[in-house]
Amino acid sequence: MLIQTRKTRGMCVWAYQSLLFAASLLYMPYMAAQYGTGSGDWPSYGGDTGSTKY
């Protein structure tokens, strides 16, 4: 049976936090790729000029 000490438990927490941080850094370009319209205007609601969806 493996007994974890405070030092090894702290290292596991540090490794887990580092992994989450690295994953969030890798995901940042995908979040930055989301953008709206270039001019800021929405020519239609729902992508349908007649708004026939609703």
What is the rounded distance between the termini?
A: 63 Å
Structural class: mainly alpha
Mean pLDDT: 76
Stretches where pLDDT is under 50 for at least 5 consecutive residues are: none
Rounded to the nearest angstrom, the radius of gyration is 23 Å
**Overall body shape:** rod-shaped
SSE succession: H
Percent in strands: under 5%
> What is the number of helices?
1
Number of E-state strands: 0
Helix-residue proportion:
40-55%
Q: Main β-sheet, in a few words?
A: none
Please give a quick description of this structure.
This protein has one helix spanning 6-32. It is mainly alpha-helical and 54 residues long.
Task: Characterize the structure shown.
The chain has one helix at 6-32. With 54 residues, the protein is mostly helical. The radius of gyration is 23 Å and the shape is rod-shaped.
Quickly list its features.
1 helix; 54 residues; 50% helix; mainly alpha
Topology (elements, then pairings):
Layout: H1 6-32
